Prior knowledge:
Blueprint: H1 5-18, E1 24-28, E2 35-39, H2 41-47, H3 49-54, E3 61-63, E4 66-71, H4 76-88, H5 98-110, H6 114-127, H7 129-134, H8 136-143, H9 150-166, H10 177-184, H11 193-204, H12 229-240, E5 246-247, E6 259-260, E7 268-271, E8 275-278, E9 283-284, E10 298-299, E11 316-317, E12 322-327, E13 334-339
Parallel strand pairs: 1-4
Antiparallel strand pairs: 1-2, 3-4, 5-6, 7-8, 8-9, 10-11, 12-13
Amino acid sequence: MTDFTTILLRDLTQLLEKGIDYNVVIQAGEEPNTKSFRAHSGILKARCPYFQTALSETWVKQEDGIIIFSKPNVSAEVFEVVLRYIYTGRIALDKHDGVDILNLLMAADELILHDLFGYIQQHLVTYKVQWMEDNFDLVRRTVFQNDRLKRLQEYCVARISTIQQCIPLVRIFQISSNDFHSRIMPYRDIIPKALFEDVMRYHMVPDCPRPLSLMPSRRGGIESNLLRSRHAALISSWIDRNDLNAFYNTTNIKAALLSRVQEPSRAVLCSQAIGACFGSGDLVMGGTHSNFNVELGCSCKRQSYERPLMITNHDRFSVDEYEVFKIVSKLGTLNHTTLN
């Protein structure tokens, strides 16, 4: 048996595009974005259960023998895609964004196109998962308005359950006002009411303190004004190479200076009159009375470490702040003291 399906589809496409012997005009969309489509009642009734009733003599309006049918709740762009599907049985969802596909799904449901309706649902949960996650509020509000969207409702229920389990782990008070409005507000229905009200009060009431029971900020276990978790990772890599007696000087961690001690007995010294010192002058933090904030109150001269802290030996400089860390253990925490 010879298959002439390709030729049939070509001819039906031309019939639609050229409107040969059409007897129906369908006006889709709302003003000012409307468009009229010429079609054939026989094909519409044969392919679409909705039009079997909608184009019956009881409902139709005719002008000069042409049926005039209005469909304002379906956009012209969406109806054009659906009409082409009715004529050819083909649709290319990969050429449409998520919003268009969601609108196509709702149109397929209204026009009782069961095969297309099921296919679009499957396409969304298979190929548009990332888009649905990024636009979850839109998807959720849309699918729960229609009891027939079971597959998408199951997806939303599963995601809501996951989100609810994660809520206690979210540092929600550390989210900026802008991000809270755009990323958190859409989920207000699944956030505990008391928590949501506390967050709203925090963002809207001036000088409103954050609750004391909040989870700590994610700093990798470090309480520091100078270091972040990425800095700790670098220091940890130094320690793993037995760089225990070392110092670094930088405001840019990528340009950190690591210097190993050559005289272990003089790695770190401390004097009440001077303050913390590394080596026999490699890094002296402050002059008289440990005042390292005074102008040019600190100095460095390579003595006990392999590399100088400053490019030029004997350089004098001032320090605004420094922190001293104590390494407890590989599984422990990094303790520190901040000196101003």
